[in-house]
């Protein structure tokens, strides 16, 4: 299209308007307020529950409303992601559109030839020594410009604070989004001595040991798992230790000590002869070897079993003093029975006998690989740097020009506002200058 | 050591109460000498309070900020610290008169909590604990002072310029600027809090952000103050509107600290 054509100019004008709107402050503030409100509201609604749960808590109508608006999974809902996407767009447009003006401003700020009375936010006049004002305000040594003018500028990096902060937030949000889409998350749990596959990775995890460290008062101090991760195809292994706050890093995956529970050894006899042995964690099942349609499910292990009226089976402590095992038996998918077996009891089903023994804790490890964690961390650090620059570095310029009746000293610091003004006036008064209100005193802040 | 800390904390709590009474007397009687005495008293209480926290840390064998009592006491300490810094830096001694009731409320809340020292659970045994919680305490202290300054700003227009308060409370523009500086300090430390919390969460739980209520409300607080900072750039929106957001922001801080623990428990429940 011909850039001189009215249609091109019209389209260019519309694009400019859209760009200006997307980068505008009111749009940013609106998005931020909506996001804050969304976060606040969503935090009060239990996430990931069924209709029946919401219905019991809030009534059927409200439950329907919650599910329709995806408030049950608010932080992954289309509207929350949409708001976040718009925020990213706002940050990107803001940074891109304002960059040329920012560069121009930073260059102009430290150019002594561009410093003029019109830019000053404060000024003073008299026969005093202007270098004393520069010193009192902790300015760098002034340069001598044309006409004998003195000029010094400090903290120019402060102009970049907001821009860098926006960049950091953008990196952070993008890193988080990409991480959510691509991260791998697995769980592996087993009793010591057992090897389990790490789903979809081709790796296997063997739990070599699991220890619980206690304090003097009996409370838990630390959980530690020793594990070996292997790649059967490449025939390589690597061992490590995972404890709370100290994950193991093996084969590019992080293994986090996440939880623990109880498991036990299980033995199946057929007509008194040992058929199979295994270990099960609570929540696992074992099909009988030569009759796989017969399944024994270990629902729970109570290391110190007590029966309490009204509350059902429980464990009085986490010491295996009086172990009991809650199980279910299935045949061809249908439940046959459910009961509790204590230490010396057996479960008999036709010619099969099932015994549980040796209750002990199992370890549950959360396994994760997120390639974008570094990007999120970088975004966080850049945001922090941007804030430190924006808040800690207040760009200011001081210049002095010799006139017929003495020196005129000017100061400019829009960020410093009234506080810079007060410091300047105090320094000027101490150096022997008198105060005069500038002709154009904006006193705006950034 | 813990017994001694207990005693000193009680003395500190009573001293803050006395400080509030002295400041109240200053507000009623409008005598500068009372204000000066209050400032000296506040400085002395701060030193004693610092000693109490150090003794708590030594007695417990860890940083004194792992339960409600310790955090509330530290929060009051941070409020006192930031208000003293701002009183001296901006030559605004009257600030103490308005910040002492807030400090008293926080120390009162601390006094109601259990002071039992318990062993830390595994997830709290990390060197990140000190960084994460101390940055939160400083940020909350700064936001508390900004809250007080914003309230003063909102009522500034009702003060006669030639009256006692007109001469002792800075002009609206300066109040706005000091409040802004306090919010900046709080914002910087809140960002550090969220960042260190995320790093720690990643180490402990394998996830740097899980939309846990505490995390979510820290973010809400951060956003509210981000709105405040943006509002100050718009002519016509800075001043009263910005001050209102600083007040709302502190309400969010209090909800994040107390409300979330009470009404929205999550994986941060020990805090």
What is this entry, summarized?
The complex is a heterodimer of chains A (446) and B (271). Chain A is α+β, with helices and mostly antiparallel strands and 446 residues long.
Tell me what you see in this structure.
The complex is a heterodimer of chains A (446) and B (271). Residues 440-446 of chain A have low confidence and may be disordered. Chain A has helices at 6-22, 25-44, 51-58, 60-68, 78-109, 130-136, 161-182, 373-392, 417-430; strands at residues 122-126, 143-144, 150-154, 184-190, 195-198, 203-214, 220-231, 236-243, 248-250, 253-270, 273-281, 284-288, 291-302, 305-308, 312-315, 324-331, 334-342, 347-349, 352-369, 396-403, 406-412, 434-436. Chain A is built from 9 helices and 22 strands. In chain A, strands 2-3-20-21-1-22 form a 6-stranded antiparallel β-sheet, with helices on one face. In chain A, strands 4, 9, 10, 11, 18 and 19 form a 6-stranded antiparallel β-sheet that branches. Chain A has 446 residues and is an alpha+beta fold. In chain B, helix 7 (172-205) packs antiparallel against helix 8. Chain B is an all-alpha fold and 271 residues long. Classes of the chains: A alpha+beta (446), B mainly alpha (271). Chains A and B meet through helix 2, strand 7, strand 10, strand 19 and helix 8 of A and helix 7 and helix 8 of B.
